[in-house]
Please model this.
Amino acid sequence: MNEDAAGGGAVALASAAAAASISVRGLTKSYGEVEAVRGIDFEVAPGEIFGFLGPNGAGKSTTISMLCTLVKPTSGSATVAGFDVNHQRDSVRRNIGLVFQDTTLDTYLTAEQNMRLHAELYGVERELVEPRMRQVLEMVGLWERRRSAVATFSGGMKRRLEIARGLMHSPRVLFLDEPTVGLDPQTRSSIWTYIQELKAAEDITIFLTTHYMDEAEYCQRIAIMDKGVIVVLDTPDALKASVGHDRVMLETDDDDAAIAAIAERFQITARIVEGAVTFGVAAGELFVPRLFAELTVPIRSVSVSRPSLDDVFMSYTGTTIRDAEASAADQRRAATAAFRRGR
Amino acid sequence: MATTTARAEPARPGAPLPVPAVHVPASSVRGDLRAIKIVWKRELIRFSKDKLRMVTSLVQPFLFLFVLGTGLSRLASAGTHGVDLRTFVYPGVLCMAVLFTAMFSAASLVWDREFGFLREMMVAPVRRSSLVLGKCLGGATVACFQGIIVLCLAGLVGVPYAPALLAEIFVLQLVLAFTITAFGVMVAARIKQIQSFMAVTQMVMMPMYFLSGAIFPVSGLPQWLTILNRLDPMTYAVDPMRRLVFNHLNISAAARRALDPGVTWWGWHVPTLLEAAVVLSIGVVCLAVAIVEFSARE
Model:
Protein backbone atom coordinates (compact mmCIF):
# COMPACT_ATOMS: atom_id res chain seq x y z
CA MET A 1 0.00 0.00 0.00
CA ASN A 2 2.78 2.37 0.92
CA GLU A 3 4.65 1.71 -2.30
CA ASP A 4 1.62 2.52 -4.39
CA ALA A 5 1.25 5.79 -2.60
CA ALA A 6 4.89 6.66 -3.11
CA GLY A 7 4.44 5.97 -6.81
CA GLY A 8 1.48 8.36 -6.97
CA GLY A 9 3.60 10.98 -5.25
CA ALA A 10 6.36 10.56 -7.80
CA VAL A 11 4.03 11.52 -10.63
CA ALA A 12 3.16 14.72 -8.84
CA LEU A 13 6.86 15.31 -8.23
CA ALA A 14 7.72 15.00 -11.90
CA SER A 15 5.04 17.49 -12.96
CA ALA A 16 6.17 20.04 -10.39
CA ALA A 17 9.86 19.60 -11.11
CA ALA A 18 9.94 22.14 -13.97
CA ALA A 19 10.41 25.24 -11.80
CA ALA A 20 9.90 24.02 -8.28
CA SER A 21 9.61 26.54 -5.51
CA ILE A 22 10.93 24.03 -3.02
CA SER A 23 12.86 20.95 -4.04
CA VAL A 24 14.12 18.40 -1.54
CA ARG A 25 16.43 15.43 -2.22
CA GLY A 26 17.34 12.78 0.31
CA LEU A 27 17.23 15.16 3.22
CA THR A 28 18.17 13.74 6.63
CA LYS A 29 18.84 15.12 10.06
CA SER A 30 20.20 13.20 13.02
CA TYR A 31 20.70 14.42 16.53
CA GLY A 32 23.25 11.96 17.82
CA GLU A 33 21.58 8.56 17.68
CA VAL A 34 18.14 9.96 17.02
CA GLU A 35 17.14 10.26 13.38
CA ALA A 36 14.60 13.08 13.29
CA VAL A 37 14.30 13.11 9.50
CA ARG A 38 15.24 9.93 7.63
CA GLY A 39 15.63 10.78 3.97
CA ILE A 40 12.76 12.69 2.40
CA ASP A 41 12.17 13.82 -1.20
CA PHE A 42 9.49 16.15 -2.48
CA GLU A 43 8.87 19.21 -4.63
CA VAL A 44 6.52 22.12 -4.15
CA ALA A 45 5.29 24.03 -7.19
CA PRO A 46 5.25 27.84 -7.26
CA GLY A 47 2.00 29.21 -5.90
CA GLU A 48 1.04 26.00 -4.16
CA ILE A 49 -0.30 25.64 -0.64
CA PHE A 50 1.61 22.61 0.55
CA GLY A 51 1.02 20.97 3.89
CA PHE A 52 3.07 18.71 6.08
CA LEU A 53 0.78 16.65 8.24
CA GLY A 54 1.87 14.45 11.07
CA PRO A 55 1.95 13.94 14.81
CA ASN A 56 4.28 15.87 17.08
CA GLY A 57 7.73 14.39 16.82
CA ALA A 58 7.24 13.22 13.21
CA GLY A 59 10.04 15.51 11.97
CA LYS A 60 7.92 18.33 10.51
CA SER A 61 9.52 21.13 12.46
CA THR A 62 13.01 19.78 11.84
CA THR A 63 12.27 19.73 8.11
CA ILE A 64 10.97 23.30 8.15
CA SER A 65 14.03 24.41 10.13
CA MET A 66 16.33 22.86 7.53
CA LEU A 67 14.44 24.54 4.69
CA CYS A 68 14.68 27.88 6.50
CA THR A 69 18.47 27.43 7.00
CA LEU A 70 18.09 27.37 10.78
CA VAL A 71 19.32 23.79 11.04
CA LYS A 72 22.04 22.24 8.89
CA PRO A 73 20.97 18.97 7.23
CA THR A 74 23.00 15.90 8.14
CA SER A 75 22.86 14.83 4.49
CA GLY A 76 20.88 15.51 1.35
CA SER A 77 20.08 18.77 -0.38
CA ALA A 78 17.25 21.21 -0.75
CA THR A 79 16.56 24.35 -2.71
CA VAL A 80 14.10 27.04 -1.73
CA ALA A 81 13.11 29.72 -4.24
CA GLY A 82 15.94 28.41 -6.39
CA PHE A 83 18.65 28.73 -3.74
CA ASP A 84 20.54 25.96 -2.00
CA VAL A 85 19.90 25.81 1.74
CA ASN A 86 23.40 24.50 2.39
CA HIS A 87 25.41 26.94 0.33
CA GLN A 88 23.25 30.03 -0.24
CA ARG A 89 21.86 30.67 3.19
CA ASP A 90 21.50 34.42 2.89
CA SER A 91 19.79 34.18 -0.50
CA VAL A 92 17.33 31.68 0.92
CA ARG A 93 16.67 33.93 3.89
CA ARG A 94 16.01 36.96 1.72
CA ASN A 95 13.32 35.09 -0.16
CA ILE A 96 11.39 33.41 2.62
CA GLY A 97 8.99 34.57 5.30
CA LEU A 98 8.71 32.67 8.55
CA VAL A 99 5.99 32.25 11.10
CA PHE A 100 7.11 30.04 13.94
CA GLN A 101 5.09 27.94 16.33
CA ASP A 102 6.07 30.17 19.23
CA THR A 103 5.78 33.91 19.01
CA THR A 104 8.89 35.83 17.98
CA LEU A 105 7.43 39.31 18.41
CA ASP A 106 8.87 41.92 20.73
CA THR A 107 5.87 42.42 22.98
CA TYR A 108 7.28 45.64 24.45
CA LEU A 109 7.06 47.30 21.05
CA THR A 110 3.98 48.32 19.13
CA ALA A 111 2.79 46.39 16.10
CA GLU A 112 4.18 49.12 13.87
CA GLN A 113 7.58 49.10 15.59
CA ASN A 114 7.79 45.35 15.12
CA MET A 115 7.00 45.74 11.44
CA ARG A 116 9.53 48.53 10.95
CA LEU A 117 12.21 46.59 12.76
CA HIS A 118 11.62 43.69 10.41
CA ALA A 119 11.73 45.99 7.37
CA GLU A 120 15.08 47.38 8.53
CA LEU A 121 16.57 43.94 9.14
CA TYR A 122 15.51 42.84 5.66
CA GLY A 123 16.62 46.05 4.00
CA VAL A 124 13.20 46.92 2.54
CA GLU A 125 13.51 50.11 0.47
CA ARG A 126 12.65 53.03 2.71
CA GLU A 127 9.94 54.49 0.49
CA LEU A 128 8.18 51.11 0.39
CA VAL A 129 8.14 50.46 4.13
CA GLU A 130 5.08 52.55 4.87
CA PRO A 131 2.81 51.43 1.98
CA ARG A 132 3.82 47.78 2.28
CA MET A 133 3.26 47.81 6.02
CA ARG A 134 -0.19 49.26 5.50
CA GLN A 135 -1.00 46.70 2.85
CA VAL A 136 -0.09 43.68 4.94
CA LEU A 137 -1.51 45.03 8.19
CA GLU A 138 -4.81 45.77 6.46
CA MET A 139 -4.79 42.27 5.04
CA VAL A 140 -4.78 40.80 8.55
CA GLY A 141 -7.07 43.49 9.97
CA LEU A 142 -4.54 45.08 12.31
CA TRP A 143 -3.92 48.45 10.65
CA GLU A 144 -6.14 50.23 13.18
CA ARG A 145 -4.23 48.64 16.05
CA ARG A 146 -0.74 49.39 14.76
CA ARG A 147 0.06 51.82 17.57
CA SER A 148 -0.84 49.34 20.33
CA ALA A 149 1.83 47.47 22.24
CA VAL A 150 1.92 43.84 21.18
CA ALA A 151 1.65 42.84 24.85
CA THR A 152 -2.02 43.95 24.71
CA PHE A 153 -2.79 41.62 21.77
CA SER A 154 -4.68 38.33 22.02
CA GLY A 155 -3.09 35.10 20.81
CA GLY A 156 -4.91 35.31 17.50
CA MET A 157 -3.89 38.91 16.91
CA LYS A 158 -0.26 38.08 17.62
CA ARG A 159 -0.38 35.25 15.11
CA ARG A 160 -1.92 37.54 12.51
CA LEU A 161 0.72 40.15 13.17
CA GLU A 162 3.42 37.53 12.72
CA ILE A 163 1.92 36.51 9.41
CA ALA A 164 1.84 40.16 8.31
CA ARG A 165 5.43 40.61 9.43
CA GLY A 166 6.51 37.47 7.59
CA LEU A 167 5.03 39.02 4.43
CA MET A 168 6.57 42.47 4.94
CA HIS A 169 9.50 41.81 2.61
CA SER A 170 7.38 40.10 -0.08
CA PRO A 171 8.90 36.65 0.30
CA ARG A 172 8.48 34.13 -2.49
CA VAL A 173 7.88 31.32 -0.04
CA LEU A 174 6.06 31.67 3.26
CA PHE A 175 6.71 29.03 5.91
CA LEU A 176 4.05 28.59 8.56
CA ASP A 177 5.01 26.18 11.32
CA GLU A 178 1.76 25.13 13.02
CA PRO A 179 0.12 28.49 12.29
CA THR A 180 -3.02 27.75 14.28
CA VAL A 181 -1.71 25.73 17.20
CA GLY A 182 -3.00 26.90 20.57
CA LEU A 183 -5.77 29.05 19.10
CA ASP A 184 -9.49 28.62 19.64
CA PRO A 185 -11.51 27.14 16.74
CA GLN A 186 -12.98 30.49 15.68
CA THR A 187 -9.58 32.17 15.52
CA ARG A 188 -8.16 29.15 13.71
CA SER A 189 -10.72 29.47 10.98
CA SER A 190 -10.09 33.21 10.67
CA ILE A 191 -6.36 32.54 10.26
CA TRP A 192 -7.25 30.21 7.40
CA THR A 193 -9.38 32.91 5.83
CA TYR A 194 -6.36 35.22 5.88
CA ILE A 195 -4.11 32.56 4.41
CA GLN A 196 -6.52 31.98 1.55
CA GLU A 197 -6.97 35.70 0.90
CA LEU A 198 -3.22 36.02 0.91
CA LYS A 199 -2.95 33.23 -1.61
CA ALA A 200 -5.37 35.10 -3.87
CA ALA A 201 -3.65 38.48 -3.45
CA GLU A 202 0.03 37.57 -3.69
CA ASP A 203 2.19 35.49 -5.89
CA ILE A 204 3.51 33.28 -3.15
CA THR A 205 4.14 29.64 -2.25
CA ILE A 206 2.92 28.58 1.16
CA PHE A 207 4.50 25.70 3.04
CA LEU A 208 2.89 24.80 6.31
CA THR A 209 2.90 22.14 8.93
CA THR A 210 -0.04 21.11 11.01
CA HIS A 211 -1.20 18.25 13.12
CA TYR A 212 -4.84 19.17 12.76
CA MET A 213 -6.44 16.83 10.23
CA ASP A 214 -9.24 19.22 9.34
CA GLU A 215 -6.75 21.95 8.44
CA ALA A 216 -4.82 19.75 6.06
CA GLU A 217 -7.83 19.92 3.76
CA TYR A 218 -7.10 23.58 3.02
CA CYS A 219 -3.87 22.51 1.31
CA GLN A 220 -3.55 21.73 -2.36
CA ARG A 221 -1.23 18.86 -1.63
CA ILE A 222 -0.33 17.10 1.57
CA ALA A 223 2.63 15.04 2.65
CA ILE A 224 1.88 12.79 5.57
CA MET A 225 4.93 12.42 7.75
CA ASP A 226 5.46 9.84 10.43
CA LYS A 227 8.64 8.82 12.26
CA GLY A 228 10.88 10.95 10.06
CA VAL A 229 9.70 9.75 6.65
CA ILE A 230 7.04 10.87 4.19
CA VAL A 231 4.48 8.10 4.21
CA VAL A 232 2.39 9.43 1.34
CA LEU A 233 2.08 12.62 -0.68
CA ASP A 234 -0.95 13.64 -2.75
CA THR A 235 -3.98 15.93 -2.93
CA PRO A 236 -6.47 15.65 -0.04
CA ASP A 237 -9.12 14.22 -2.37
CA ALA A 238 -6.81 11.66 -3.89
CA LEU A 239 -5.66 10.61 -0.46
CA LYS A 240 -9.20 10.16 0.74
CA ALA A 241 -10.13 8.25 -2.40
CA SER A 242 -7.10 6.00 -1.94
CA VAL A 243 -8.47 4.82 1.39
CA GLY A 244 -11.41 3.51 -0.62
CA HIS A 245 -13.69 2.67 2.22
CA ASP A 246 -15.90 4.14 4.88
CA ARG A 247 -15.20 4.02 8.54
CA VAL A 248 -17.62 2.08 10.71
CA MET A 249 -17.55 2.58 14.46
CA LEU A 250 -19.53 0.38 16.85
CA GLU A 251 -20.29 0.52 20.52
CA THR A 252 -21.04 -2.96 21.77
CA ASP A 253 -21.61 -4.77 25.04
CA ASP A 254 -18.54 -6.94 24.48
CA ASP A 255 -15.90 -5.36 22.24
CA ASP A 256 -13.54 -8.36 22.23
CA ALA A 257 -16.28 -10.74 21.20
CA ALA A 258 -17.39 -8.28 18.53
CA ILE A 259 -13.89 -8.02 17.07
CA ALA A 260 -13.58 -11.81 17.03
CA ALA A 261 -16.98 -12.22 15.41
CA ILE A 262 -16.29 -9.60 12.74
CA ALA A 263 -13.03 -11.29 11.90
CA GLU A 264 -14.70 -14.68 11.66
CA ARG A 265 -17.82 -13.69 9.71
CA PHE A 266 -16.50 -10.96 7.40
CA GLN A 267 -12.72 -11.49 7.41
CA ILE A 268 -12.34 -7.85 8.48
CA THR A 269 -9.79 -6.76 11.06
CA ALA A 270 -11.35 -4.34 13.51
CA ARG A 271 -9.63 -2.57 16.33
CA ILE A 272 -10.58 -0.35 19.17
CA VAL A 273 -10.06 3.33 18.40
CA GLU A 274 -11.06 5.92 20.93
CA GLY A 275 -13.29 3.45 22.77
CA ALA A 276 -15.19 2.08 19.78
CA VAL A 277 -14.76 -1.01 17.64
CA THR A 278 -13.58 0.47 14.35
CA PHE A 279 -13.00 -0.93 10.90
CA GLY A 280 -12.99 0.18 7.30
CA VAL A 281 -15.34 -1.30 4.71
CA ALA A 282 -16.46 -0.36 1.20
CA ALA A 283 -20.02 1.05 1.02
CA GLY A 284 -20.51 1.21 4.76
CA GLU A 285 -24.24 1.96 4.71
CA LEU A 286 -24.91 -1.26 2.77
CA PHE A 287 -22.78 -3.22 5.17
CA VAL A 288 -24.56 -2.15 8.37
CA PRO A 289 -27.78 -4.23 7.79
CA ARG A 290 -25.64 -7.36 7.32
CA LEU A 291 -23.79 -6.53 10.47
CA PHE A 292 -27.00 -6.36 12.48
CA ALA A 293 -28.28 -9.58 10.94
CA GLU A 294 -25.16 -11.64 11.48
CA LEU A 295 -23.46 -10.30 14.58
CA THR A 296 -24.57 -11.94 17.80
CA VAL A 297 -22.97 -9.39 20.13
CA PRO A 298 -25.48 -6.70 21.17
CA ILE A 299 -24.74 -3.38 19.43
CA ARG A 300 -25.49 -0.16 21.30
CA SER A 301 -24.72 2.32 18.53
CA VAL A 302 -23.22 2.44 15.10
CA SER A 303 -21.82 5.23 12.98
CA VAL A 304 -20.62 5.24 9.40
CA SER A 305 -18.43 8.05 8.11
CA ARG A 306 -16.85 8.93 4.79
CA PRO A 307 -13.07 8.78 4.85
CA SER A 308 -11.47 11.83 6.39
CA LEU A 309 -7.79 12.64 6.54
CA ASP A 310 -7.87 10.94 9.92
CA ASP A 311 -8.67 7.73 8.11
CA VAL A 312 -5.98 8.45 5.57
CA PHE A 313 -3.46 8.86 8.33
CA MET A 314 -4.72 5.71 9.97
CA SER A 315 -4.69 3.66 6.83
CA TYR A 316 -1.11 4.66 5.97
CA THR A 317 0.39 4.54 9.43
CA GLY A 318 -1.89 2.05 11.19
CA THR A 319 -2.53 4.44 14.02
CA THR A 320 -4.44 7.64 14.77
CA ILE A 321 -2.54 10.86 15.02
CA ARG A 322 -3.35 11.04 18.72
CA ASP A 323 -1.96 7.58 19.42
CA ALA A 324 1.10 8.31 17.30
CA GLU A 325 1.79 11.35 19.44
CA ALA A 326 1.39 9.36 22.62
CA SER A 327 3.84 6.70 21.44
CA ALA A 328 6.31 9.33 20.22
CA ALA A 329 6.19 10.87 23.68
CA ASP A 330 6.76 7.43 25.23
CA GLN A 331 9.76 6.87 22.99
CA ARG A 332 11.22 10.22 23.97
CA ARG A 333 10.78 9.36 27.63
CA ALA A 334 12.37 5.96 27.10
CA ALA A 335 15.28 7.51 25.19
CA THR A 336 15.80 10.06 27.92
CA ALA A 337 15.65 7.39 30.60
CA ALA A 338 18.16 5.23 28.70
CA PHE A 339 20.40 8.24 28.32
CA ARG A 340 20.18 8.96 32.05
CA ARG A 341 21.11 5.39 32.88
CA GLY A 342 24.24 6.04 30.87
CA ARG A 343 23.70 3.34 28.27
CA MET B 1 8.79 57.29 14.23
CA ALA B 2 5.64 59.30 14.93
CA THR B 3 6.43 61.80 12.19
CA THR B 4 6.36 59.22 9.43
CA THR B 5 3.02 57.76 10.38
CA ALA B 6 1.09 60.94 11.11
CA ARG B 7 0.02 61.29 7.49
CA ALA B 8 -3.70 62.05 7.40
CA GLU B 9 -5.05 59.71 4.78
CA PRO B 10 -8.66 58.58 4.64
CA ALA B 11 -8.79 55.00 5.78
CA ARG B 12 -9.71 52.56 3.04
CA PRO B 13 -10.19 49.35 4.91
CA GLY B 14 -9.98 46.22 2.85
CA ALA B 15 -8.92 47.91 -0.37
CA PRO B 16 -5.42 46.71 -1.20
CA LEU B 17 -3.23 49.64 -2.13
CA PRO B 18 -1.12 49.39 -5.24
CA VAL B 19 2.27 48.74 -3.70
CA PRO B 20 5.29 48.14 -5.90
CA ALA B 21 6.92 44.80 -5.27
CA VAL B 22 9.31 44.83 -2.36
CA HIS B 23 12.70 43.49 -3.25
CA VAL B 24 15.15 42.43 -0.58
CA PRO B 25 18.62 43.55 -1.67
CA ALA B 26 21.73 41.39 -1.44
CA SER B 27 23.94 41.69 1.62
CA SER B 28 25.75 44.99 1.71
CA VAL B 29 27.53 47.26 4.12
CA ARG B 30 24.53 49.55 3.96
CA GLY B 31 22.21 46.70 4.90
CA ASP B 32 24.40 45.79 7.84
CA LEU B 33 24.52 49.41 9.00
CA ARG B 34 20.73 49.54 8.89
CA ALA B 35 20.63 46.36 10.97
CA ILE B 36 23.08 47.75 13.53
CA LYS B 37 21.05 50.93 13.75
CA ILE B 38 17.68 49.26 14.24
CA VAL B 39 18.98 46.85 16.88
CA TRP B 40 20.53 49.83 18.68
CA LYS B 41 17.32 51.81 18.35
CA ARG B 42 15.26 48.97 19.73
CA GLU B 43 17.30 49.05 22.93
CA LEU B 44 16.54 52.76 23.30
CA ILE B 45 12.82 52.30 22.61
CA ARG B 46 12.60 49.52 25.16
CA PHE B 47 14.52 51.53 27.73
CA SER B 48 12.36 54.61 27.19
CA LYS B 49 9.25 52.51 27.80
CA ASP B 50 10.64 51.08 31.00
CA LYS B 51 10.35 54.01 33.40
CA LEU B 52 10.44 51.74 36.41
CA ARG B 53 13.81 50.38 35.42
CA MET B 54 15.22 53.88 35.07
CA VAL B 55 14.17 54.70 38.62
CA THR B 56 15.10 51.41 40.26
CA SER B 57 18.56 51.29 38.72
CA LEU B 58 19.27 54.62 40.43
CA VAL B 59 18.52 53.30 43.89
CA GLN B 60 21.88 51.59 44.30
CA PRO B 61 24.06 54.57 43.33
CA PHE B 62 22.01 56.78 45.65
CA LEU B 63 22.46 54.34 48.52
CA PHE B 64 26.20 54.16 48.03
CA LEU B 65 26.68 57.87 47.46
CA PHE B 66 24.45 59.38 50.10
CA VAL B 67 23.79 56.71 52.71
CA LEU B 68 27.05 54.78 52.77
CA GLY B 69 29.11 57.82 51.78
CA THR B 70 27.55 60.09 54.37
CA GLY B 71 27.56 57.47 57.11
CA LEU B 72 31.14 56.33 56.62
CA SER B 73 32.47 59.86 56.28
CA ARG B 74 31.96 60.23 60.06
CA LEU B 75 34.35 57.32 60.58
CA ALA B 76 36.82 58.13 57.86
CA SER B 77 37.20 61.89 58.20
CA ALA B 78 40.64 61.47 59.77
CA GLY B 79 41.98 59.49 56.80
CA THR B 80 40.62 61.59 53.95
CA HIS B 81 42.72 64.71 54.63
CA GLY B 82 39.66 66.92 54.57
CA VAL B 83 38.24 65.51 51.34
CA ASP B 84 34.57 64.58 51.50
CA LEU B 85 34.31 60.77 51.37
CA ARG B 86 31.39 61.17 48.99
CA THR B 87 33.64 63.03 46.55
CA PHE B 88 36.11 60.18 46.84
CA VAL B 89 33.59 57.41 46.12
CA TYR B 90 31.77 59.39 43.41
CA PRO B 91 33.75 57.98 40.44
CA GLY B 92 33.21 54.49 41.78
CA VAL B 93 29.49 55.05 42.17
CA LEU B 94 29.29 56.39 38.64
CA CYS B 95 31.02 53.25 37.39
CA MET B 96 28.63 51.13 39.41
CA ALA B 97 25.57 52.77 37.86
CA VAL B 98 27.04 52.04 34.43
CA LEU B 99 28.03 48.51 35.41
CA PHE B 100 24.57 47.48 36.57
CA THR B 101 22.68 49.12 33.73
CA ALA B 102 24.99 47.68 31.09
CA MET B 103 24.71 44.20 32.53
CA PHE B 104 20.94 44.52 32.64
CA SER B 105 20.91 45.49 28.96
CA ALA B 106 22.96 42.42 28.12
CA ALA B 107 20.51 40.31 30.15
CA SER B 108 17.74 41.37 27.78
CA LEU B 109 19.42 39.15 25.20
CA VAL B 110 18.64 36.16 27.39
CA TRP B 111 15.03 37.37 27.64
CA ASP B 112 14.96 37.78 23.87
CA ARG B 113 15.93 34.17 23.52
CA GLU B 114 13.38 33.04 26.08
CA PHE B 115 10.55 35.01 24.48
CA GLY B 116 11.55 34.04 20.96
CA PHE B 117 12.46 37.44 19.58
CA LEU B 118 16.09 36.43 19.19
CA ARG B 119 14.94 34.04 16.48
CA GLU B 120 13.45 36.87 14.46
CA MET B 121 16.88 38.51 14.46
CA MET B 122 18.84 35.31 13.88
CA VAL B 123 16.95 34.39 10.70
CA ALA B 124 17.29 37.83 9.15
CA PRO B 125 19.60 38.05 6.12
CA VAL B 126 22.20 40.15 7.93
CA ARG B 127 25.51 39.35 9.53
CA ARG B 128 25.36 38.12 13.09
CA SER B 129 28.15 40.56 13.87
CA SER B 130 25.81 43.44 13.00
CA LEU B 131 23.24 42.16 15.46
CA VAL B 132 25.78 41.68 18.25
CA LEU B 133 27.39 45.06 17.61
CA GLY B 134 24.00 46.81 17.55
CA LYS B 135 23.11 45.14 20.84
CA CYS B 136 26.38 46.20 22.48
CA LEU B 137 26.09 49.78 21.25
CA GLY B 138 22.48 49.91 22.40
CA GLY B 139 23.37 48.60 25.85
CA ALA B 140 26.25 51.06 26.08
CA THR B 141 24.00 53.97 25.13
CA VAL B 142 21.37 53.03 27.68
CA ALA B 143 24.03 52.63 30.38
CA CYS B 144 25.36 56.05 29.44
CA PHE B 145 21.97 57.62 30.08
CA GLN B 146 22.17 56.23 33.56
CA GLY B 147 25.69 57.59 33.89
CA ILE B 148 24.51 61.01 32.81
CA ILE B 149 21.93 61.06 35.58
CA VAL B 150 24.68 60.32 38.10
CA LEU B 151 26.84 62.95 36.42
CA CYS B 152 24.09 65.47 37.14
CA LEU B 153 24.51 64.77 40.85
CA ALA B 154 28.19 65.78 40.77
CA GLY B 155 27.61 69.15 42.40
CA LEU B 156 25.91 67.60 45.42
CA VAL B 157 29.09 65.75 46.39
CA GLY B 158 31.55 68.57 45.72
CA VAL B 159 32.57 67.65 42.17
CA PRO B 160 32.62 70.80 40.00
CA TYR B 161 30.52 71.01 36.82
CA ALA B 162 33.53 71.78 34.63
CA PRO B 163 32.63 71.10 30.96
CA ALA B 164 36.01 69.53 30.19
CA LEU B 165 35.73 67.23 33.22
CA LEU B 166 32.19 66.17 32.36
CA ALA B 167 33.15 65.48 28.76
CA GLU B 168 36.16 63.37 29.75
CA ILE B 169 34.20 61.40 32.30
CA PHE B 170 31.46 60.88 29.73
CA VAL B 171 33.89 59.33 27.26
CA LEU B 172 35.35 57.07 29.93
CA GLN B 173 31.97 55.84 31.08
CA LEU B 174 30.98 55.22 27.46
CA VAL B 175 34.00 52.95 27.05
CA LEU B 176 33.17 51.16 30.30
CA ALA B 177 29.51 50.79 29.33
CA PHE B 178 30.49 49.26 25.99
CA THR B 179 32.92 46.82 27.56
CA ILE B 180 30.51 45.65 30.25
CA THR B 181 27.71 45.16 27.70
CA ALA B 182 30.04 43.24 25.41
CA PHE B 183 31.05 41.07 28.36
CA GLY B 184 27.39 40.47 29.25
CA VAL B 185 26.50 39.64 25.64
CA MET B 186 29.40 37.20 25.51
CA VAL B 187 28.07 35.47 28.62
CA ALA B 188 24.52 35.55 27.21
CA ALA B 189 25.69 33.69 24.10
CA ARG B 190 26.37 30.67 26.29
CA ILE B 191 23.90 30.91 29.14
CA LYS B 192 20.33 30.28 28.13
CA GLN B 193 18.42 30.69 31.40
CA ILE B 194 17.84 34.09 32.89
CA GLN B 195 18.30 32.76 36.43
CA SER B 196 21.71 31.33 35.60
CA PHE B 197 22.67 34.50 33.77
CA MET B 198 21.75 36.63 36.77
CA ALA B 199 23.62 34.29 39.11
CA VAL B 200 26.76 34.35 36.96
CA THR B 201 26.76 38.08 36.44
CA GLN B 202 26.12 38.79 40.13
CA MET B 203 29.01 36.52 40.95
CA VAL B 204 31.20 38.50 38.57
CA MET B 205 29.89 42.01 39.18
CA MET B 206 30.15 42.25 42.95
CA PRO B 207 33.82 41.16 43.17
CA MET B 208 34.59 43.34 40.18
CA TYR B 209 33.07 46.29 41.95
CA PHE B 210 34.64 45.71 45.35
CA LEU B 211 38.11 44.93 43.97
CA SER B 212 38.19 47.91 41.64
CA GLY B 213 39.15 50.51 44.21
CA ALA B 214 35.80 52.20 43.84
CA ILE B 215 35.58 52.47 47.62
CA PHE B 216 39.23 52.46 48.68
CA PRO B 217 42.55 53.87 47.43
CA VAL B 218 44.61 51.35 45.48
CA SER B 219 48.04 51.92 47.07
CA GLY B 220 49.43 50.28 50.18
CA LEU B 221 47.11 47.29 49.95
CA PRO B 222 48.17 43.77 50.98
CA GLN B 223 49.80 42.02 48.07
CA TRP B 224 46.97 39.57 47.36
CA LEU B 225 44.52 42.45 47.14
CA THR B 226 46.88 44.49 44.98
CA ILE B 227 47.16 41.60 42.51
CA LEU B 228 43.41 41.10 42.38
CA ASN B 229 42.89 44.83 42.03
CA ARG B 230 45.28 45.07 39.07
CA LEU B 231 43.56 42.11 37.37
CA ASP B 232 40.12 43.72 37.69
CA PRO B 233 39.16 45.51 34.46
CA MET B 234 37.02 47.95 36.38
CA THR B 235 40.13 49.28 38.15
CA TYR B 236 41.15 50.84 34.87
CA ALA B 237 37.86 52.72 34.58
CA VAL B 238 37.59 53.93 38.19
CA ASP B 239 41.20 55.08 38.49
CA PRO B 240 41.33 57.51 35.53
CA MET B 241 37.90 58.84 36.42
CA ARG B 242 39.05 59.60 39.94
CA ARG B 243 42.20 61.25 38.60
CA LEU B 244 40.08 63.49 36.39
CA VAL B 245 37.85 64.47 39.31
CA PHE B 246 40.82 65.15 41.60
CA ASN B 247 42.47 67.29 38.90
CA HIS B 248 39.59 69.68 39.36
CA LEU B 249 39.64 69.72 43.17
CA ASN B 250 41.50 72.20 45.28
CA ILE B 251 43.14 69.87 47.81
CA SER B 252 46.46 69.28 49.50
CA ALA B 253 49.21 67.21 47.91
CA ALA B 254 49.06 64.82 50.87
CA ALA B 255 45.38 64.20 50.29
CA ARG B 256 46.07 63.62 46.60
CA ARG B 257 48.80 61.09 47.36
CA ALA B 258 46.69 59.24 49.89
CA LEU B 259 43.40 59.13 48.02
CA ASP B 260 44.45 59.15 44.37
CA PRO B 261 47.74 57.27 44.19
CA GLY B 262 47.09 55.97 40.68
CA VAL B 263 47.39 52.40 39.44
CA THR B 264 50.93 51.07 39.13
CA TRP B 265 52.37 48.04 37.35
CA TRP B 266 55.53 46.98 39.13
CA GLY B 267 56.01 50.54 40.32
CA TRP B 268 55.23 52.12 36.96
CA HIS B 269 52.32 54.57 36.85
CA VAL B 270 49.86 53.49 34.18
CA PRO B 271 48.86 56.54 32.12
CA THR B 272 45.21 57.49 31.71
CA LEU B 273 45.03 56.73 27.99
CA LEU B 274 46.53 53.30 28.47
CA GLU B 275 44.00 52.59 31.21
CA ALA B 276 41.16 53.53 28.89
CA ALA B 277 42.76 51.40 26.18
CA VAL B 278 42.86 48.41 28.56
CA VAL B 279 39.13 48.73 29.21
CA LEU B 280 38.34 49.19 25.54
CA SER B 281 40.46 46.24 24.41
CA ILE B 282 38.77 43.94 26.90
CA GLY B 283 35.46 45.11 25.42
CA VAL B 284 36.65 44.46 21.88
CA VAL B 285 37.84 40.96 22.82
CA CYS B 286 34.49 40.18 24.47
CA LEU B 287 32.67 41.52 21.42
CA ALA B 288 34.77 39.35 19.11
CA VAL B 289 34.11 36.25 21.19
CA ALA B 290 30.40 37.07 21.29
CA ILE B 291 30.30 37.46 17.49
CA VAL B 292 32.05 34.13 16.99
CA GLU B 293 29.66 32.44 19.43
CA PHE B 294 26.54 33.84 17.81
CA SER B 295 27.77 33.20 14.27
CA ALA B 296 28.47 29.57 15.13
CA ARG B 297 24.85 29.05 16.20
CA GLU B 298 22.81 27.46 13.48
Chain A touches chain B through 47 residues (CB under 8 Å). Chain A has 13 helices and 14 strands.
